[in-house]
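ESCALATION

Customer reports they have been waiting on this structure for their group meeting. Please prioritize. Original submission:
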Amino acid sequence: MPRVLQTTVFNLHTADEPLDQLIDETAMSHQPLVIKGTYHNAILLSEMDWLAIQDTLYLLSIPGMRESIQVGLQTPVADCSKELEW
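Update from on-call: job pushed to the front of the queue and completed.
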């Protein structure tokens, strides 16, 4: 089951916190921050979390990779290969 993240909403016009503090808090908590503007909203993520999302999307775009990962997660370490075949 996918993990549901707690999202903090930040109103750009009424907030007192400086942007660098929000960036630090977002990086430390690994939680996205919704920034509400007058006409549009945006999401603030830490760079590390964004890179992890990109890696996940890349891996899941490879046919059969999702299933391979699921099988691998259920395989005991003792049953894993000690040498790669490629």
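Sent to customer with the following note: The chain has two domains: 1-45, 46-76.
Escalation resolved.
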